[in-house]
């Protein structure tokens, strides 16, 4: 499990777990640090995908099925132990949703809450643009990276750093672009879904997420662009929401 998951703050007696899924090109460290902020009732697992950090020598995932299969097979024993929730940002929202659907299909297990951020629902036409980001020229790709923000300046200003970072980002974007999810005829999940998004990000079809669950649904818009969640004030709001819902879900689970 250590290959797939980063857990800086292990809490074996925690009441619930929060499983965090990275954005495109992202590693596990950012969300792993969330474990310090939550209290002892919540243990945070942060997913580490192949091709980055300690898995840098591994080949990138080719499609969503490959990612979901690894996550479900490795984490299933842990997910059966206690209530858990998923949080994903952007690409991580798609991988968290796909993982939740797979878990329900193979063993009837669901997160008590799905928190998604910074992207349209997987079946929404708003996900697809005329030009695929993964196929942009190097110049146009760097321009796009600059416009969305979130990439450290030391990466953007260093050709060597870009050579390491850009392939990871393009690989994840390629997986997202190939991930086609048809609009379901009925709800595929029964857990509650909460959407977060930045007010200054490109518009996302958040309402469409409601069509994927029979559970409660709500949207929270926070100030900022695509990486609004890196702002300390926004991060606190997100964590307060997660904590509140996990406490309620934990009681319902019992």
Automatic annotation (TrEMBL):
Show the InterPro entries listed in the entry.
AB_hydrolase_fold, TEII, Thioesterase
List, in alphabetical order, the GO biological process terms annotated in this UniProt record.
medium-chain fatty acid biosynthetic process
- Keywords attached to this entry: Fatty acid biosynthesis, Fatty acid metabolism, Hydrolase, Lipid biosynthesis, Lipid metabolism
EC class: hydrolase
- Pfam families recorded for this chain? Thioesterase
Superkingdom per UniProt: Eukaryota
Q: Which reaction does it catalyse?
A: (9Z)-octadecenoyl-[ACP] + H2O = (9Z)-octadecenoate + holo-[ACP] + H(+)
Annotated GO MF terms: fatty acyl-[ACP] hydrolase activity
Q: The Thioesterase domain covers which part of the protein?
A: 17-244
Q: Does the keyword Lipid biosynthesis apply?
A: yes
Q: Which SUPFAM superfamilies match?
A: alpha/beta-Hydrolases
Q: What EC number(s) has UniProt assigned to this enzyme?
A: 3.1.2.14
Q: Which family does it belong to?
A: Belongs to the thioesterase family.
Q: Which protein are we looking at?
A: S-acyl fatty acid synthase thioesterase, medium chain
- What organism is the protein native to? Geotrypetes seraphini
């Amino acid at each position: 499990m250590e290959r797939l998951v980063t857990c800086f703050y292990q809490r074996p007696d925690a009441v619930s777990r929060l499983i965090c899924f990275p954005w495109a090109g992202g590693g596990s460290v950012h969300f792993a640090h969330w474990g310090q902020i939550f209290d002892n009732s919540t243990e945070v697992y942060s997913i580490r995908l192949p091709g980055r950090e300690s898995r840098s020598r591994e080949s990138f995932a080719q499609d969503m099925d490959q990612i979901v299969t690894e996550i479900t097979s490795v984490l299933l024993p842990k997910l059966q132990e206690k209530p858990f929730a998923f949080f994903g940002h952007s690409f991580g929202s798609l991988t968290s949703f796909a993982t939740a659907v797979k878990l329900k299909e193979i063993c009837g297990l669901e997160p008590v809450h799905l928190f998604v951020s910074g992207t349209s629902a997987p079946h929404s036409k708003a996900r697809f643009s005329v030009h695929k980001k993964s196929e942009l020229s190097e110049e146009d790709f760097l321009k796009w990276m600059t416009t969305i923000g979130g990439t450290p300046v030391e990466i953007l200003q260093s050709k060597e750093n870009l050579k390491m970072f850009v392939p990871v980002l393009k690989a994840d974007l390629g997986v997202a672009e190939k991930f086609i999810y048809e609009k379901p005829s009925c709800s595929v999940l029964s857990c509650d879904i909460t959407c977060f998004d930045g007010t200054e990000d490109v518009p996302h079809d958040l309402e469409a997420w409601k069509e994927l669950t029979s559970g409660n649904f709500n949207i929270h818009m926070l100030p900022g662009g695509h990486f609004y969640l890196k702002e300390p004030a926004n991060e606190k709001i997100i964590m307060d929401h997660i904590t509140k819902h996990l406490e309620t879900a934990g009681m319902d689970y019992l």
